[in-house]
Amino acid sequence: MLIKRRYGWEIPEHKVTPEALFLNRRTVLSGLAGAALTGIAGPARAEGDPSQGLYPAPVNPAYKDAGRAVTDEKYNTNYNNFYEFGTSKGIAAEAENLKIRPWEIAVDGEVDKPFVIGIDDLLKKVTLEERVYRHRCVEAWSMVVPWTGFPLKKLVELASPTADAKYVRFETFNNPEMASGQQPGLFGTMPWPYVEGLTMAEAMHDLTFVVTGAYGKPVAKSMGAPIRIHMPWKYGFKSIKSIIKVSFVKERPIGFWEQLQSSEYGFWANVNPQVPHPRWSQASEQVLGTGERIDTQLYNGYGEFVASLYQGLENEKLYM
Ligand code: MTE
């Protein structure tokens, strides 16, 4: 993510990868080559993960084809945004510090009965399936990912929210000992934990996916193990990783990036090629791994499924 430096706790622009680098395939490739030389590249490792036997899961035929080739796994596991482990794209080695067992998820707020559930118990209550989704970052790069998981609406059903629940708020761990990016840095501490939110209608939409695996195995640590979400019609920053809390709330949650820079990152973050980011165009995107530059589509091409979610909300900033 790119942020404009305005406050002491914001990262200076020279410390984040400038946009030009996101858009330059050679740089991406040479970065991966460098990672290989230092021994951090390669497919995700999942040794010791008790959920390993659940993968690969059957492909849901409705989402078996995203219209583009699946991105090679090495890009997805080595070119990441996971600020808990650093501000560069090359956090895969650092993210190996993520301890994914035991892993508990608290479900609370406006629900009949709050509860805490371990990831392996949760996995016993759901049916895993594979879905191939397009994944579009606000930084104008994209991938195609074979995720494994289950629709978020299943978790909502388990939580049994009350009529007062208007939004779902997700929270990532906050553990500076484990995650070096959460330690105070040169310019202070970022507003940890990473938080994101959805409306109840968005949470109940069939496309909204809880991800526990990818590429036919438990999801890699760098990609947000052991549990994250993915909404393919929204910019990637909404797809929060390594979730420890799911809260049903009355008020609209303020996400991590909105808190950092509300003039550039908002609540809705629906993909729209005609609404530029304040500092760059969203008209096209760099497809990682292929060198292609393609036109970006409204709602990342999922408009026929999701546009109706936003009827009557035209006065909202739906595309930032
Ligand atoms: N979740 C957490 N907890 N921390 C993060 O830094 N980055 C977000 C999102 N979820 C982020 C996060 C951003 S900006 C993007 S684009 C996607 O994760 C990147 O997912 P990927 O690394 O699997 O491609």
Number of helices: 9
Q: What percentage of the residues does DSSP assign to strands (E)?
A: 15-25%
Computed CA radius of gyration, to the nearest angstrom? 18 Å
How much helicity do the residues have?
Answer: 10-25%
Largest sheet: 7 strands, mixed
Low-confidence stretches: 5-46
CATH architecture: Alpha-Beta Complex
Report how far the terminal alpha carbons are from each other. Answer: 13 Å
Mean pLDDT: 89
What's the helix-strand series?
A: HHHHEEHEEHEEHEEEEHEEH
E-strand count: 12
- How many domain modules? 1
Going by CATH, the homologous superfamily would be Oxidoreductase, molybdopterin-binding domain
CATH fold label? Sulfite Oxidase, Chain A, domain 2
Shape: globular
Structural class, judged by helices and strands?
Answer: alpha+beta
Bound molecules: ligand MTE
Q: Tell me the name of the CATH class.
A: Alpha Beta
Short structural description:
The protein is of the alpha+beta class and 320 residues long.
Provide structural commentary:
It is a single chain. The protein is an alpha+beta fold. It has a single domain, classed as Oxidoreductase, molybdopterin-binding domain (Sulfite Oxidase, Chain A, domain 2, Alpha-Beta Complex), CATH 3.90.420.10. The chain has nine helices and twelve strands. The strands form two sheets. Strands 3, 4, 7, 8, 9, 11 and 12 form a seven-stranded mixed beta sheet that branches. The chain has a five-stranded mixed beta sheet with strand order 2-1-10-5-6. A hairpin with a 2-residue loop joins β7 and β8. The protein is globular.
